[in-house]
Write a structure and sequence with these properties.
The chain is mainly α and 190 residues long. It is built from 9 helices and no strands.
């Protein structure tokens, strides 16, 4: 079997974005084993795995058409999209884990490493996006990430309920993600 190259992936992405659906099918055939493996880290029921796999394929197709940019390798971008989808899926289904799969995190980190300049530019744009938040949300984000405070510690300091802090931070995350997408990024992650 011929080894694929990142250039071939980018050509297929360009063809798909131009309306060639068979190019997307070729990408799926290449990457479906990796996507299935990622889903199986979270789920064990074969029916659930197949359902989620279908949903992810639709999700990837939509994101590829609407928000993909060529700041890194397609395979790395895909890994992040799948990981983010699975995190959202687990959160919505209230699936929790008592451990962190450090190997899975290492795989994601190694596959989607932006070049230093691109990473610095993305960090700069993210900082600008944080500055653009309303003061209350900006303060919460800074307390959570710069000061590394827990939700409970933030709630205690501000005299709020923990659930209120969580909801406001979630709102801030959504605003940051929209801002970063408006600036041409797929997400607000560094």
């Amino acid at each position: 079997m011929k080894q694929k190259t990142p250039d071939e992936d980018e050509q297929l992405v360009s063809l798909y974005r131009g309306g060639n659906v068979s190019a997307f099918n070729t990408l799926l055939i290449r990457y479906i084993p990796k996507i299935r493996q990622a889903v199986r880290r979270f789920l064990s029921n074969p029916e659930d795995i197949n359902d989620v796999l279908q949903d992810i394929c639709i999700h990837v197709g939509t994101k590829l058409k609407n928000t993909y940019n060529e700041n890194g390798k397609f395979s790395g971008w895909l890994t992040c999209v799948v990981a983010n989808y699975m995190c959202s899926y687990c959160r919505k289904k209230k699936i929790t884990f008592s451990f962190v799969d450090l190997e899975a995190v290492k795989v994601i980190e190694s596959e989607y490493m932006l070049p230093t300049f691109a990473r610095e530019q993305k960090l700069f744009d993210l900082q600008r996006s944080v500055e653009e938040l309303p003061d209350e949300l900006k303060k919460l984000v800074e307390m959570k990430f710069k000061e590394k405070m827990t939700l409970q510690a933030i709630a205690d300091k501000l005299g709020m309920k923990k659930t209120t802090v969580a909801a406001k931070l979630n709102s801030a995350y959504r605003k940051l993600e929209k801002s970063m997408q408006h600036k041409g990024y797929d997400d607000a992650l560094i």
